[in-house]
Amino acid sequence: MLNYDICYMIQRKEKQMLEELRSKIAGEEFDYPALLESLREYGCPRDKITDLLRREDIIRVKKGIYIFGKKYRRRSFSREILANMICGPSYVSLDYALHYYGLIPERVEAVTSITSSRGRHFSTPVGLFIYHAVPMRAYSIGIDRLEIDAGRFFLIAIPEKALADKIQADRGSAIRTQAAMKTYLFDNLRIDPEGLGKLNIEKLALISNQYRSRKLWLLYGLLRNYGGKGQKT
Length: 233
Fold this sequence. Notes:
This protein is an alpha+beta fold. The chain is built from 11 helices and 9 strands. The strands form 3 sheets. A 4-stranded mixed β-sheet has the order 4-5-7-6, sandwiched between helices. Strands 1-3-2 form a 3-stranded antiparallel β-sheet. Strands 8-9 form a two-stranded antiparallel sheet.
């Protein structure tokens, strides 16, 4: 009976600790400093973290980055937010962003991002995260901040930047004419023609300028002929 009472008290304290932790961390995605701060009232917070991981009350996505386990999850975690956290500075772009905006039909399993540091891959319990590096001059333009709900947001390329990033990153494609660009867009990427026509060519011009890319100016010229948005009349 005594052992039962001890086990009951331990379980009750653990449950109370998780409830307190959930009240202090509003989001589903959090980092080590936030976790440590939330457990600072306990004598050995690092031991508590080890226990939480062992019981899968929290899950380590990458060293220093966590999400709550299924039992204590209030809503779905965001892989887009995690992508921003795992490697920074970065923003979601390339294939993942193109599918997010409905510009390409294929569902993209890996979360693809652009970073100003160096290209990297991270295989995690919640999926694959891929980062492609670009020069700083091209990095800082064409980024949007999308809010999921109160206090939870992530950085993602605007559609024009996502497409520009994809074209620049795809070094295997020899695009030297507008005809080759058209083939690449519609045959290789299977891009949505209607969505392509909604892209803002003035935004694309600014992005092409920062990239200093001949391929992107070919895209710009093609979109002008295609009737892209933002043309001066």
